[in-house]
Amino acid sequence: MIDKRVGSLPEAVAGIGDGATVLVGGFGNSGIPVELVHALLDEGARDLTLVTNNAGSGETDVAALIREHRVRKIICSYPRSSGSIWFEERYRAGELELELVPQGTLSERMRAAGAGLGGFFTPAGADSLLAEGKEVRMINGRRHVFEEPLHGDVALIKARKADRWGNLVYSTAARNFGPTMATAATVTVVQVREFVELGDLDPECIVTPGIFVDRVVEVAGS
Amino acid sequence: MSGPRLSLIDMARRVARDIPSGAYVNLGIGMPTLVGEVVSPDKEIVYHSENGILGMGPAPAPGEGDPELINAGKQPVTLLPGGSYFHHTDSFMMMRGGHIDVTVLGGFQVSAAGDLANWATDEVGHPPAVGGAMDLAVGAKRVLVFMTHTTKAGTPKILPLCTYPLTAAGVVDRIFTELAVIDVVPGGLVVRELVAGLSREELQARTGARLAFADEVVELVPGAV
Questions:
Q1: Which of A117, A170, B46, B100 is most exposed by smallest CB count within 10 Å?
Q2: Among B67, B69, B96, beta carbon nearest to A124
Q3: How far B29 CA sits from the closest chain A CA (Å)?
Q4: For residue range A13-35, what is the model confidence (pLDDT) as tens digits?
């Protein structure tokens, strides 16, 4: 019987090793898998590369990982948010490497990884500093920069409901990077507000089919 | 800087007039957000938010709403009937792929060729952040820039060439400031509208790039835009 449900947060993040590349869903405070990130903090993996849109704010989730020196590098589009004090502290101290990526390119690089593609050419950023050192090609009279796929060892994402096959539906704008990240990691771990029975999710409305999901954990009220 | 000028709300009203009914629109963070508050209610506009929303509505009543339903500026919003949610890759497909009719963006600098600099200054040691600015700038069908004409110190922001790092080259269609409405055309910049009481010479003096003037320059009257 296929059953991707796990009984606890420690089980959900078990095996994430030092040096792992971890995709973390969320945009601002919307859709952050807070409890999974805290479980990763407890699990203890270090020297992580985080791929996430923002660099955390306040003292929780991504900011806590940075504060506790678990993160070597962050790949994101907008690290400088209100309250991103730990990112700024570690970045200014030279302890944290930043790879800045335009937001659509960040998402599309993960899509390429999930889709088994070797990358793509995009006009976004082709005229900017962010294209330095990358191949630029004229396509239909416009400059495009080559961007490589971005694969994760693990994805940590948040959804609203899952069944035991790992089929997912999300909640409003908290969906954001989740469906793409789910496709782009070797192991995709999802925290959901509630488990439902197989067959309860309308097949016309399932957003992420379970093939992209490895572990789901219920976090009531999340 | 003293002298005739439009208020921020007048500027937003003027930008709003350029948004046609039926348009799919993305408003940038900051000043551009104001435009949504003054668009005529007679127009049906579908607002897009980069984090995966079409048909975005106004802020919810205090204490109500879904804390995860936010706009690109991380402020709480609502969804109008007919609205939809989608994931980030689809959202940026809409932006990059030419599906957004109009975007209104803030700007640090715009060049005579329509180059836009709005993501980084030359400030050293400040961590950079780019967000969705580059995707939107290259992909929207019409790029409107809503910004002050000069910096607070009076330095022109409309220049022969941008000195700050570019967001995208040759993408700006029209610039709206407190002093003028200026089109970017193949030959350079053409002033279409000018605030009442300001001379062409005074406008040019506050502008780094050379300006041409339309045959008929419309007067922008503060308080009556």
A1: A117
A2: B96
A3: 12
A4: 999 999 999 999 999 999 999 99
Separation of alpha carbons B96 and B126, rounded Å: 27
| Within-domain flag for A123 | no
Which residues in chain A have their CB less than 8 angstroms from residue B70's CB?
A: 27-30, 173
Give me the amino acid identity at B88: H
Chain A interface test: which of B26, B48, B50, B51 (most A C-beta within 10 Å): B51
Q: What is the CA radius of gyration of chain B?
A: 18
ipTM: 0.95
Q: Distance between CA atoms of B114 and B26, rounded to whole angstroms?
A: 19
On chain B, the residues whose CB falls within 8 A of the CB of A209 are none
Among residues A116, A123, A117, the alpha carbon closest in space to that of A138 is found at A123
A-contacting residues in B 27-56 (Cβ below 8 Å)? 49-53
- Report domain extents, chain B: 8-220
- How far off is chain B from A140, nearest CA to CA, in Å? 14
Does A138 reside within a domain? no
CB contact under 8 A, A107 and B89: yes
In angstroms, the CA A164 to CA A169 distance is 13
Nearest to B180 by CA among B4, B2, B1: B4
CB B161 within 8 A of CB B170: no
Give the CATH number for residue A100. Answer: 3.40.1080.10
* Catalytic site includes residue B50: yes
How many folded domains does chain A comprise? 1
Helix (H, G, I), strand (E, B) or coil at A42: helix
Query: Residue A136: inside a domain, yes or no?
Result: no
CATH for B8-220 is 3.40.1080.10
In tens digits, what is the pLDDT along chain B, a chain of 225 residues?
579 999 999 999 999 999 999 999 999 998 999 999 999 999 999 999 999 999 999 999 998 999 999 999 999 999 999 999 999 999 999 999 999 999 999 999 999 999 999 998 877 767 889 999 999 999 999 999 999 999 999 999 999 999 999 999 999 999 999 999 999 999 999 999 999 999 999 999 999 999 999 999 999 999 999
Q: Which of A171, A172, A180 lies nearest to residue B87, judging by beta carbons?
A: A180
Q: Which residues contact A24 (CB under 8 A, 6 or more apart)?
A: A32, A33, A37, A50, A51, A52, A61, A62, A155, A156, A157, A181
Contacts of A81 in chain B (CB under 8 A): 74
